């Protein structure tokens, strides 16, 4: 295991872009975007005067950023920022949380209230027309997302429920239909946060307050494996590297006292772990 001392207050949303050979991740509360070139180990940071919740791959080498409640197109080289669409403009105390791109290039992105008000958040789907479609309401912390089974199954985490929901997913239309609870997180393992899928269809879930990334079988609900980390608040994970078998894991310093930070000095850093099983590629947004 290797660590990258990024000292994030709330590290989140890791992304691998193969053509750049780079991992990206965000520090939501600081508004920082990190780019780490895996081969050279060069780390670069860009700052935005917003809560930066999401980084996704867009078209023509651009990034799509989720800033507060707005999506923007960002050019890393020129630093040009182009605003695209705003969600929930009538809720100024809301922000984006996790986001992913499906195999058709649609962005799926959730919201939450800054005070984490119960059932205040939603999940949206945004296609090339940039018209947000609300897919789910009454979420508290819309969080990790993943697809499996030839993209016919969609998984979603609403963190405080400590459950991973499974939906039937129609790739052509982008429709989802609730099927069942795939995994229930037992007491004492923290709260499920960000998530990704491996090539065997298993779910790798970062556990906030659970000091690790846990591998769950969504068919049986069984815990298969744990990556132990030297910090309590583990926030998200993604596969990258040439063979998609390097996992980058983000962590957080938030909700830790000064005594906690002395005890867990690597809180907020990012960790790289090489795994036997590989992951799946991420997709480009269609705009």
TrEMBL record:
InterPro entries named in the record: 6-blade_b-propeller_TolB-like, SGL, SMP-30
Active site (catalytic residues): 193 (proton donor/acceptor)
Lyase recorded as keyword: no
The keyword Chaperone is annotated on this UniProt entry: no
Required cofactor names: Zn(2+)
Family to which this protein belongs: Belongs to the SMP-30/CGR1 family.
PANTHER family linked to this entry: REGUCALCIN
Protein name as catalogued: Sugar lactone lactonase YvrE
């Amino acid at each position: 295991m290797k660590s990258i001392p990024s000292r994030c207050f709330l590290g989140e949303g890791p992304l691998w872009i193969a053509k750049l050979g780079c991992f990206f991740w965000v520090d939501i509360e600081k508004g920082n975007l990190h780019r780490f070139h895996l081969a050279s180990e060069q780390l670069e940071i860009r700052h935005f005067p917003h809560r930066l919740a999401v980084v996704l791959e867009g078209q023509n080498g651009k990034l799509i950023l989720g800033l507060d409640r707005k999506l923007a197109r960002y050019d890393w080289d020129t630093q040009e920022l182009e605003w695209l669409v705003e969600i929930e403009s009538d809720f100024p105390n809301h922000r984006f949380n996790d986001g992913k791109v499906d195999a058709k290039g649609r962005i799926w992105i959730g919201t939450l209230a800054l005070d984490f008000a119960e059932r205040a958040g939603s999940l949206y789907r945004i296609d090339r027309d940039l018209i947000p479609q609300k897919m789910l309401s009454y979420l508290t912390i819309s969080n990790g997302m993943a697809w499996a089974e030839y993209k016919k199954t969609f998984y979603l985490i609403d963190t405080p429920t400590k459950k991973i929901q499974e939906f039937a997913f129609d790739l052509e239309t982008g429709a989802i239909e609730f099927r069942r609870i795939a995994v229930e997180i037992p007491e004492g393992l923290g709260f499920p946060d960000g998530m990704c899928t491996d090539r065997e269809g298993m779910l790798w879930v970062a556990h906030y307050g659970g000091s690790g990334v846990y591998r769950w079988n969504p068919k049986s609900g069984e815990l298969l494996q744990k990556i132990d980390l030297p910090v309590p608040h583990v926030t998200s994970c993604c596969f990258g590297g040439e063979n998609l078998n390097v996992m980058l894991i983000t962590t957080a310093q938030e909700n830790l006292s000064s005594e906690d930070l002395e005890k867990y000095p690597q809180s907020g850093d990012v960790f790289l772990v090489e795994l036997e099983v590989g992951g799946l590629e991420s997709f480009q947004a269609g705009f």
